[in-house]
Please model this.
Amino acid sequence: MDAKMNKKQDIVKLAKAGNEPAEFALGKKGILICPEDDSYYFKKSWHNGRRAFLNRRENHDLSFRKVLCPADLMIKNGLWEGKVIIENPPKDKLTEIKNLIRNFDKVAQAKDTLDRIIKIDSEKGNLIVTTTENQMAHKLAKKIHDAFKKVSLKTSYQKAPGDAEIVWVKFQ
Ligand SMILES: [Zn+2]
Model:
């Protein structure tokens, strides 16, 4: 088994461990908050809007502990679950493509605080986008496909070991 396979399997374990903090005693009056963002863990899942939640009068007596949310844990460990490889993007469309990706990130995170674009890398004229959630990869690829209808695109998927997913978007 190569190192890459190990890494992808680790991602799955990490995500599961992070989603259901075993050490967190459910039913007690307490929540987990992520020090990196505005998310909090309450009633078995992570949510957006921690500050607003804690500001509510009925929540003033809640105790909380700081724990990295699964998304930030994944980012901290250099892991990802979804990857979109955008091959040969036209130079005059680069800004438009990057804006689309950033907007996709905002919408995804607003819906689910654990859904993030991790980063956009430029590599040999290609764009490599990594995400914290596997299905985000093909959703983003579809968005790009829909937005650039005049460009010939070829999208292919690879179900990687574990839950990770890689999608290629080829501008031709
Ligand atoms: Zn976080």
User: Anything to note?
Assistant: Strands lie at 30-33, 40-42, 45-47, 63-66, 82-87, 117-123, 126-131, 153-159, 165-171. Residues 34, 36-37, 39, 68-69, 71-72 surround zinc ion (CB under 6 Å).
